[in-house]
Amino acid sequence: MGYVIALANQKGGVGKTTTSVNLGACLADLGKKVLLIDLDPQGNATSGLGIDKKSIKQSVYDVLINDVDLSDIILPSSHKGMDIAPTTIALSGAEVELTSLMARETRLKDAFGSVKDEYNYILIDCPPSLGLLTINAFTACDSILIPVQSEYYALEGLSQLLNTIKLVRKHFNPDLKIEGVLLTMFDKRTNLGQQVNAEVKKFFGSQVYQTIIPRNVRLSEAPSHGEAIVDYDKRSTGAHVYQQLAKEVLANHGE
Ligand code: ADP
Ligand code: MG
Predict the structure, then answer these.
(1) pLDDT digits (tens, 9 = 90+) for 35-78
(2) pTM, two decimal places
């Protein structure tokens, strides 16, 4: 059975998509079969993995709203060993459309079917909000990986996120866990980075990954080439740190 990890933080621009794409690619390089579900209407993971959005016939939107099977929308990504459930901007309407549907919080979970058996890891790239799309991810997943950007107010909003996790545990998914907390866009030249690191560790303790993702311009360039960092520039710092993170994630799973 595939293990499902949602990458979430309602703040935008903290590294959710970058981490989904590159952690996924590095897990695939370690021999895992990986599916990335793009649950953000922006579709940055979809285009970042080389999918031309104009070519998409059915997307995550159809899975959530039109009862299309998840297996029917899956495409191979530009990275070997990783598939993607793509999204288009149509998904931006889903947040509202879901409101009036039956089983609105469990639609993603209900759509998995046999797809779960075909992958070792399924990553869900969440939108920057705590609305119904994110609730669907939290209901469908085993655990949540929280990227935290190394900046002032890094912890701001995290109590809301933890509160949402608590509510989902209570109503839909009692076994929901925190997979880990990842510091991103770290700048080791400033004291701020060290301060944020200490603060996040004080708050989350051993749930914080040893691996810290530094700022690396190659990581921000790779998506416009439709490639994961290990395909765009294998020798970059960005590639090395995401390889390290993938190993740490597997080690936490006893692999
Ligand atoms: P989110 O999905 O949380 O909104 P993204 O992963 O899209 O965040 O990252 C926001 C922006 O920052 C993107 O332009 C991305 O390319 C860039 N970025 C993410 N991580 C890094 C990093 N470690 N170093 C440099 N740029 C990064
Ligand atoms: Mg994103």
Answers:
(1) 999 999 999 999 999 999 999 999 999 999 999 999 999 999 99
(2) 0.98
Q: Which residue minimizes the CA distance to atom 1 of ligand 1? A: 13
Q: Is the CB of 14 under 6 A from ligand 1?
A: yes
ipTM topping 0.85: yes
Tell me the best of 7, 10, 16, 18 to mutate to test the pocket of ligand 1, counting ligand atoms within 8 Å of each CB and taking the most: 18
Please state which CATH class domain 3-250 belongs to: alpha beta
Ion ligand 2 residue ranges (Cβ < 5 Å): 16-17, 40, 44
Any ligand 1 atom below 6 A from CB of 185: yes
Q: How far apart are CA 67 and CA 65, in angstroms?
A: 6
Q: Which two tokens stand for residue 56?
A: 């998409």
CB of 43 shorter than 6 A to ligand 1: no
Instruction: Give the sheet arrangement for strand 143-149, strand by strand.
Output: 75-76, 82-85, 34-38, 121-125, 3-7, 143-149, 177-184
Would you state the structure tokens that stand for residue 93, as one six-digit string? Answer: 């309407």
138 close to 176: Cβ distance less than 8 angstroms: yes
**What is the predicted pLDDT for the residue at 255?**
93
